[in-house]
Amino acid sequence: MEREPAPPLTGTALTARNLVKRFGDLTAVDDVSFQIRPGETYGLLGPNGAGKTTIISMVAGLFPPDSGSVDVTDIRMGPSSLGAKRHIGLVPQELAIYPDLTAEENLNFFGRLQGLRRKDLKSRVALVLDLLGLGERAREQTKKYSGGMKRRLNIGVGLLHRPLLLILDEPTVGVDPQSRNSILEAVAQLSTEGTAVLYTTHYMEEAERLCDRIAILDQGKVQAEGTRDELITLTGGVDRINLIGTGRMVAAAESLRTVPGVQQVSGGGLSGLTLTVTDGPALLASIITNAATAGMAVTSVELTRPDLESVFLHLTGKALRD
Amino acid sequence: MSPVAAIAGLEVRRFLRDRSNIFFVFIFPLLLILLLGSQFGSSAASTRVAIAGGAGTTLEKALAEQLTSDRLQVYSGSPQAIREEISRGRTDVGLFISEQAAQAFDDGVQAHMEVLTASQASGQAALQKVRASVQIVSSRQSQLSALMKAGLTGDAARAALERSKEQVHAPTIDLVDTGDVSQEFRGLGQFDLGATQQLLLFIFLSSLTGAVALIQARRLGVVSRTLAAPLSARQAVSGLALGRFGIAVVQGIYILIGTALLFGVDWGNLWLTALVLAAFSAVAAAAAMVIGSLLDHDGAATGLGIGAGLVLAGLGGCMVPPEFFPEPLNTISSLTPHRWAYEALADIQRHDGTLADIMPSVGVLVALAVVLLAVGARILLRSLGRAL
């Protein structure tokens, strides 16, 4: 799903400045800064242990940073900053709902904690249940729900009080593809309605699909930040084509170097040839024809376009799921 | 509704909704009180007298009628069964009527009966009551005999005796045991003592085992969601503490009302009883907070809760009345909150104690609650941090 561009900047929903958090000798978050505008979805992409949840905890005011600051709109966030907390909705990674309560009761309880009054609470609960598609089973204990339904309710609790900033910590972990898709669509919808979203994930596809801007995190540090396209340019923005086959590999390599758009050809042994090209899909047909003409019988072709995985690999020297 | 009240209300609602609590929180305490009261409760009506033999004879009928009118529990059985009941302490006195005795009674001559008494102290007191009843029956039969020998018909003699019974009241025997322990329990209803003991035992036990909810809240992640809402950590802890207190109070009120309605337990001055209940519930709630904050494992918390709940109850006089404790155990007992609450409730129930009388006990309970609450809140606050 293509994302519409974020609305024009009208103030800042969240400003995190030079956040540092240490646990003993471990520096979990190291000088992290970023801003999120209203209607913008900002992604924190990194492997497990990169510091995403620690950042979120500081942004949500669960504990203070050792140094640095978080401002929600222009209110300083901290464990006792009730004013700032009113503007955020937190969706923790765990299913933070009571299994022995119904969906309606869960929403009512957390709504009261958010300060929603009786009438407003009732209408908001009904609205969120409808939005989540849980209306028919609203009075059923949530322990009887499927994993996807629980996840949806988990998000619904965070949305209940119409926060300016919605913080989602890996909301699709352990969710079936259908529910996952529905969650991602709901988040995208919120963003278009003007809600600022801070979204952590280690799923590259989710970050690419949802986020206007992405910070790539590793070992508590922001390795790079920008839009998807900006991040991809960091890798040089080129495609990679792997040709596997038999026959005159060296001659084929020589021939392919002359094809316009091919920047580099390497290999030539049993592993085949690896080509670096500017526009892989457009060149694919002429590359296979040239290789065949030069005497190589191509048995397998693999085109790899640059993605955030490549960016992460490029920046850290390791795969995202390592 | 304030966030503190919302959290506390949720805790109580979840406790009441938990089906596993239905038996142990609501049914079991009353069953136990019924059982203990039936077996060991003290009451005038609980003196049990068994009659063996002589079924349908004048002597048997006269004895049964008189014993019953003297408010003794009378039943019939075989000699062997009655001997066994007496040896087990379930019957106080056994009367064995032989055929000769029944005949002698009918003939108006001296009749001899075998009497068997239970060995416990109450047996002797019961024997005195039975003797008095037998004496009345014997006198009436002698009078009847004398009147008939004087020329009255049987019916006329009986009618004359009935009239004299209405005009002359026979002396009654009121046995008083002057022992300290007996004096202490004097006037208590059959279920009163057991109800007091089980009230304290179950308030504490339910609170401690309910501490698991605090562990579950941390594990479920609802703690982080709660703390991300616009309320302070202190408010969250206050809500959880108030919830524990609410659970203890619900358990206490249930037993108070249940025993009063079902077993006629006299709790004395209700306001003072409520004060003791509140102070003791606060101690129980604070203790539950300590357990729920220190431990991270449900099983360990439940085990510790049950263990500590039963041991403290035992030491505090909720199993065997502390009046029977030897001196060293008596001293140890005073270290438990149960003992202080027991003493305060005993003052109210047995001696019409006033606020001034129970203040020392309530003061100790309040002090204990304050200390435990301070410790519990501090550890709970830290445990919430651990959960994030």
From TrEMBL, chain A:
A GO MF term: ATP binding
Coiled coil feature spans: none
UniProt cross-references to InterPro entries, sorted A to Z: AAA+_ATPase, ABC_transporter-like_ATP-bd, ABC_transporter-like_CS
Domain of life: Bacteria
Key words, A-Z: ATP-binding, Nucleotide-binding
Pfam family, one: ABC_tran
ABC transporter domain sequence ranges: 14-244
Listed name of the protein: ABC transporter ATP-binding protein
Naturally occurring in which organism (per UniProt): Paenarthrobacter aromaticivorans
Organism taxonomic ancestry: Bacteria, Bacillati, Actinomycetota, Actinomycetes, Micrococcales
